[in-house]
Amino acid sequence: MARRLGIGAAWTKPADGGLLYPDWIAGTFMLMPSSVFARLEGFDSRYRLYFEDVDFCTRARLLGLTVLVDAGLRLRHDPHRASRRLGRSLYWHVRGALRFFASDVYRRARLIESHA
Fold it and tell me: Which domain covers residue 48, as residue numbers?
């Protein structure tokens, strides 16, 4: 809802069409060598549909890897937005958020950010 109202962080495309360095990207758009995926031990199976990509990117950053977006690429993903309706998907979304924000991965990332 906040995004629809224009509240909160907004992405702006770099003037030179360069690279963006977000905290995380959607799993739908990840591309990496299989060795990186193996080094991170893949996605955490305790997540179900939501926040596994946030966890994955956070673990990558904790290992010193860079998460980036090439603003020159054009990709399209048409999500079903099932989590906006009541039901199982909303439950999984909330559960994933709670799991991530209570995780050791999140605590370690916050500790590093607070010392930067």
Answer: 19-72+83-115
What pLDDT digit, counting tens, does each position of 42-81 carry?
999 999 778 999 999 999 999 999 999 888 888 777 766 6
Domain count, the chain: 1
Does residue 5 lie in a domain region? no
Decide if 91 is inside a domain: yes
What token pair was written down for 28?
Answer: 């739908």
- As a whole number of angstroms, the distance between CA 51 and CA 87 comes to 17
State whether residue 93 is helix, strand or coil: helix
What is the token pair recorded at 19?
Answer: 């690279």
Single out the residue of 99, 4, 87, 3 nearest to residue 50, CA to CA.
99
